[in-house]
């Protein structure tokens, strides 16, 4: 792993485009003043209750995600390149998912091995041959991006099931505008506050043909004990739609209704934040009390849209991810604009042999893992951890991929010792409707607050930043 790319500073000590005014502000701002503003930001987040739960943590079931008040800056040309790549990738993902559940041309062409699909935990045979409204499977996608130099952005992973974090993007911007109006006066920052409008327009655009002229949309949550419940309630409020649990809905004659004080009301679009397994106890897990009995019958009859579609979890699989360059070429006829991180498939003999020999240098991930769990960061791992993963790889190589340890780019971050570089990634949110693809400029920047750490996940001690895309 080489030296990390510094997004603010040049090697000769100069400052990159976009950061000049911010660097001047940092140089003139006393550290105690920055610390005071950070405390004010934390107080704001506590007051509005923006927390997340850490499952299995007995000491603190609810936490604030640490917020860094120094924004990350992306120039307009950089964002335009990113945006084009995101649109291309998500269009390919939707085409791939539609194909997997219908004609399977990509499997017939040998683009991806059949067993990676049919043995995939995310594959849902219930969706085989069942078209979805408007042919769109992943309406809301969170694509994790990392940067390694001035020109290169890699896609680290695709989140096509129920991507989270957009509430933090919106709240981060609100608190920055409250605390640092002088900074916004010096920069032309593209707005993100129109995301709820864009999401609602996307959801309405994918309503089934049987819907009325004013489709009824709801947000389906597992309930208050879910780790992302704050985001569920936040988004429902911002969209002006009902936040419902499974018990608030019922199915009659293959149509979904919501219980209201004025009687049953038909539901056309469900933005669901519940995993496939729990959506319908009649179709999936019989012990689920979170879902709606009969929901799949209404869905398969084309009377309701689920966003995202059932079965999109295939695209979250890290082994499938490794084939995305080929998938993009197959479905778009174009070279990928955004590259994948080079990936070794441990299911392949030669790749496994290389990974076993170079474990201390690589990052090893479970193909179905998420949240920073189930992974080995070789350069930062103990000998015991490396040997444990060696045993796992020997016993079940198909369950893992490996990648080189990237030197993720760094951004200036306010830490206990002052302003220092810390590694970051970016999760832009891509909305696919029947009319067009929408992307608010920026996304959620996650930052590894521990010095030298490459793990940015909030469950692993990471924090967040506001992301500024400059309009000029």
From TrEMBL:
It comes from the Bacteria. InterPro entries: ATP-dep_Glu-Cys_Ligase-2, CP_ATPgrasp_2, UCP005522. Gene3D superfamilies: 3.30.1490.270, 3.40.50.11290. SUPFAM superfamilies: Glutathione synthetase ATP-binding domain-like (SSF56059). Residues 71-448 form the Circularly permuted ATP-grasp type domain. PANTHER family: BLR5612 PROTEIN, SLL1039 PROTEIN. This is Circularly permuted type 2 ATP-grasp protein. It comes from Alsobacter ponti.
